[in-house]
């Protein structure tokens, strides 16, 4: 009797051992980056919180079943961790459900799987061994039979811990589940098991929408796109860049307001300002991204579709059939690559790139990253470009190479020796530093141009530069309005969504183009310049050099910009003056204001969602005269 009281119940022993093991694995086996003590703390508690919940469920079972539940729960849990470890050793990534169905990944793993299993891995099952031993040998004294009230309390407590963990995670990373970031973020904040549950929910949700679609929806949508957004007109520039290399530079967080502007009397981006004179420069080019940030900008550019209203398409619909730029130009003999010194799984890029036809991704592992050459999010842009050259110089031609910069990213950190202009002085630390990192990026691009010229690649290439999304949110209204010396209105907010867009064709004189343009237009524009006649393509954008273009640029929240108007939050502004014309309550003359396009923009956005959520392009034959394939 006495003996019995002194023992800790089996489920608590299991919860502690398994929690401890999970924590050790998170901390020392997975290479999870921890940026502050709060993240350390969340990682620590989530291991125990989840473990406590899993094993506390056992108190609801009768003794025999309780023993069985605990034994198998610790075994299955340990196997899940172990499979992730084996996978992680090869791919530095966590298993996702779609990955389990990905033949190529499994095959890659298959050959090397024996190398990935180490003898000391047996230690990872120490908790299982202890629990099985106790369950078999000593179980009677360790099993419990609580009263209903105690059972309920135990369950309530374990759920409260889970909720507490989630709240802390949400404080640390707001909109954690909506902004499905890197898998590492999810594991770090809610733990491996909750991550798998989340992944399963996301997976079945998108599967269901996909299953319900039968392709008939696409008839109307394809008609709409062919009629309203696609234009196959060939201009003088058609094929001007035929068979040239395409170097696409994604300018992290760079907004148009810094171009040709100064801070403390100094130019912010002198190189980019000069480049305008030698490029087609679009001064009214808008980003159209949403929660998927950089990955959304990549998605829009490559597919000429809109991003998802929730989360990142790169995460939620990475398995869809697309008709992406890398794939199309790949069929024309282009070798396509991405250069970006971050984990390949960030934004699920590894999966999406593979699916959309990229031939190679130079991720963080392709670079030498040291403390000295990194800042903020990782490798400094200057080192990024210089280290990339060796790969670029030996690359099969013609190539399409996308460079995604990183230094000009929130919180806009920079080493003192890299800062060549003074900070701005306002109440926003963010805006104050932004100018310095923007200048640093400008210098890094200048250096990159020099390398390209030195290597001889420059002459045979066209260089496209684009800001991916805003860097300064409206949280910094006050400072922005001080800097711009302008009141921060909803109109100004939309106008600040302009990002620089350059098409630099060596040997061609440039032109500043004022017509409205957006990221959806990039794909058809590039295909036009490369002389690739993809008249069966379905896109929401139009070649920027065509005379007849769709009359508006839609933002993801339903705001839009037309030649004359800016529409946002039920208000219609004059695009040039910013003057409020009406609040769209239906009283205005329909023909002359924003009214004309409000519904069409909504329809267009929802068509895009239908394509993505229903994976509708699998029903479309892009080669064969737009035939909707027979649906079985
Ligand atoms: C991360 C980089 C920045 O790899 O592209 O991502 P963001 O936060 O801008 O989407
Ligand atoms: Mn970005």
UniProtKB/TrEMBL annotation:
InterPro entries for the chain: Alkaline_phosphatase_core_sf (IPR017850), LtaS-like (IPR012160), OpgB/LTA_synthase_biosynth (IPR050448), Sulfatase_N (IPR000917)
Short name of one Pfam family: Sulfatase
Known EC number: 2.7.8.-
One MF term in the entry's GO annotations: transferase activity
PANTHER family (alphabetical): LIPOTEICHOIC ACID SYNTHASE, LIPOTEICHOIC ACID SYNTHASE-LIKE YQGS
Location(s) in or outside the cell: Cell membrane
Membrane topology label: Multi-pass membrane protein
Annotated Sulfatase N-terminal domain residues: 244-532
Main enzyme class: transferase
Residue stretches spanning the membrane: 9-29, 41-60, 72-91, 117-136, 152-169
Gene3D superfamilies linked to this entry: 3.30.1120.170, Alkaline Phosphatase, subunit A
Protein name: LTA synthase family protein
Primary localisation category: membrane
Organism: Gracilibacillus marinus
Family listed: Belongs to the LTA synthase family.
Keywords: Cell membrane, Membrane, Transferase, Transmembrane, Transmembrane helix
CDD domains tied to this protein: LTA_synthase
